[in-house]
Amino acid sequence: MLKKRDLHECHSLHDLMVDPAVFPYVRHKCRSYEEYLFATKQVIDEEEQNTCISRTILNELGHPIGTIDLYHMEHNTGFLATWIGAPYFGKGYNQRAKEAFFAELFLQHEIETVFLKIRKQNIRSKKAVGKLPYVKLVIDIHHEVYKLINNTEQIYDLYYVNRSDFMANEEMNHVVAT
């Protein structure tokens, strides 16, 4: 379901990313294939430097359908960015990708907290994150991060996942154990 990024999948991913239902919500807004290729190469380099972790999301046939990244990594925290191509909306890929990625982050890396900033108007992402029982909305805790991402106006809701909350989830303990 997840694999390390490589340049061979850029054509397929770029075609999915430029869809108007997806493009407004992606982190790297690359308008051309060449620009996307360059951005992907940068992400691969950043991962080699341990400043991000990036994976390609695959469907059951092994075709690339989106990406999931942890970026701005510092002090065992980072921000999550996920996008999936429109033909794959509503099929459970987002939730499965997040669960697999969180398992990797918390079990194989020293990540303690993952932040998810979601545009207030991005209803699809807010509904998707609501299906994950270990994701919490920032209210009082991490308020300084909330203020940082919304320094001029409040355009993002901020959620977070702690390693302990993720590991305490009974369903995930079963998945991790098998």
UniProtKB/TrEMBL annotation:
SUPFAM superfamilies: Acyl-CoA N-acyltransferases (Nat). Residues 12-132 form the N-acetyltransferase domain. Gene3D superfamilies: 3.40.630.30. PANTHER family: GNAT FAMILY, PUTATIVE (AFU_ORTHOLOGUE AFUA_3G00765)-RELATED-RELATED, N-ACETYLTRANSFERASE DOMAIN-CONTAINING PROTEIN. This is GNAT family N-acetyltransferase. It comes from Paenibacillus taichungensis.
